[in-house]
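Q: My collaborator sent me two sequences in one message, no labels, and asked for predicted structures for both. Can we handle them in order? The first one she listed is below.
A: Yes, handling them in the order given. First sequence, followed by its structure tokens:
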Amino acid sequence: MLESLLVYTITAFILYRLALANICLSTNSKFWTQSMICSVIVFAFIAGARYNVGVDFVGYLNTYSELVNGEDMYRDDMEWGFMFLSNLLAGLHFHSFFYFALWATMQIAFIYYAFKDSRYLIPYLAFCIMLGPYFLDWMNGIRQNIVICGFVFASRFIKEQKFKKYLLFIGIAYLFHHSVVLLLPFYLIGRKYIVLEKKITNILILLFCIIVGSTPSWISAFSFISPYFELLGMDRYGGVFNSMIDGTLEFQTFDWGPTKLAVLALEMLIIYTYPKMRRYFLNTNIDLYFTLFYIGICWYYLVQNTTLQMVRPTMYFTIFRLPLTCFLLYYASSIIRSKGLFNMTCILCFSYIFITIYKGYSNPIGSYKTVLYHFFFEY
């Protein structure tokens, strides 16, 4: 337990200190300074040196080990782009450290570069990633999370109305996770800021989604979308969806534990403060981020009691909780200078890692076991 606390907190502070050196630079100056490159290296090292952190870790490790051993593998559940890079590293007989470090480098580089014009947010990003749910999320579902982080960067093409660049991102990202095609219609939806300054209405709609999502039988009303899964090359998702419709698949049960309640409270706080907060960031993408975030959390709470396959697509949008939390921290600390709002935001965001580590230590079974940090050279 102590090892995990030290690794996560020390890494957060190192990333924070490295990011501070970059915030005073103008947006026209070089972004990838020595401090930013060091920050990426530190993050990649922590991700690469881990052992059994993340539910999918062993599966990815076994796949890479088989490639290194020269086995000619074909995985129909892993996309061509991901397998190409995996085979490239395996052919050079790189240690699995470099395999996991590569994916982490792509994730953090996308996130950092997305905020090259809002560099004052990057120190807060460091803390939120390491002490919030994001680092542990990224260590699971690695392929999809590479694409998710890429979408945070590529979302700028929605605001800038650069459809060709957005389409190019979709095409490249498809080589890493097929579910990215779901983002195509959001080029149009994301340009309409449908949830701006009606905070009470937005909170009530969210509560409605939570209530409806507690009884997922409503999903049968959408049986007409089933053929579109196959059309988009998402047969696995289509199979799961059809099984839910015909009642042959057992639904998962959502657990309202302290971490989930903290996340919900943070989301409510973002919704409540957003109308006033956005006025100070009109030259940023905050409106776009909030639109995608709000769509994502409503979608998430509607499907939270279905299956993991139905929940995972919402991660493309709930990721925008990350920049909005950083906007909120900066707004509270540097604009309105509210210690109460700043401390509340910190507690709701950063308590996640401490509660999760305690759960992993006190009940080391299932997914909780994989939140405890271990270095690979310990085994």
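Q: And the one she listed second?
A: Here it is, processed independently of the first:
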Amino acid sequence: MLIVFVTNKIITIDTILPILFEASQRNNQKIIVVVSRELGMHTIEKNVVINDAVNKIGFKFLFGGRYRVRWYKRIVGSIQLSLLFFAGIFGAKFIHFDPLPVSPIRVLSMFFSSRVFYSERDSIAHSFYLQSSNRKNKFGLFYTQGNYPVPLGGNIISYNKDRLYYYYGHKIHEKRNVYFLGPTRTRNLWRKYLYSKSNYYFNKFHKGVDLSNGLIFVILTYYGVDNFNEEYTVSQKKLRNNFENTVKVLSVIKGDTPVFLKPHHGTDLEYVNSVLSEYDGFHITYLHPSMLLQKARFVICNWYSTILADAYNLGVPTIEYTYYPNSSVIKKDSINQSMGSNYVDWFVYDDVNNFKEVVNNLINKEFNHKQQTTNNEDQDNTLLIDLCQS
């Protein structure tokens, strides 16, 4: 049995779900997902692809239940923790994502440390962690490179060696058993499952949209205009202008290919819908990005998104048509490249003509419905073996 504690951030269940799916399908493991906050449960339930996959391989519950009375919620949480403890006695293994101690994990680690696994949240080898040295953690504490508190449990699941050593130092192997994995959402069994379900989800949520020629996938960003300071106001207005140019260019070039736009949780949808109201063939979608990538000809964003990394790893062309603030560290260090440059095929910096040229070249290429994918079946499966053995 595998018991997984996920946070409010969808990226936690999104990162580990392909591994859980594989453990369930290949080794018949029972999967229980423990959600720490009601917001996290709502986020999972809203993401129909993730929610259905979790229900297929096991079940989920909210720690403490959906009760509003605090003392009753604590009683329910204590009962749930007792049941989890008994599951540990009978051999269950636990996966969590919080680098700092939280009560259930602290208790379980005291008794079952060798069966507690801490997983990094992001399965893509980004370098965003380098920015964390200038930030406080949620308790207001600063940590220096190599001296971050080691997560609870006897095991660490890492997707980026440089990030792991940056946080915990090279001697982390002396303190914890470390498993290194590649990107989880490109694992073959997970991709085959998504491909087998793609027609079902598109027919259910976008019935009548002709996908015979694929789709164009646009990742939306915030697009709000705040008066934080003049520089950022200018930047936000630039991003709006780039989005409007994105829509205009696509409306002319796309032909019969539909455009699917995936909102960020903070996207100003009122603004987005006002822009789209003048055009046909544009569809707001809440399908999982990996599902959209099954039929994507190429992907566009106006601000770097980690979805581009998944697209790139799946062989789907990626475009970032953007504008960075003048004082941004990102721009100073990479005026001619994206902050996620490893995963961006075309970086277009505030140049609509260049963007138009890139899109025109891509739309004229023959669409291969079965995208070239990264074959990672030969990667180290030691983690799966250890998770599934008694």
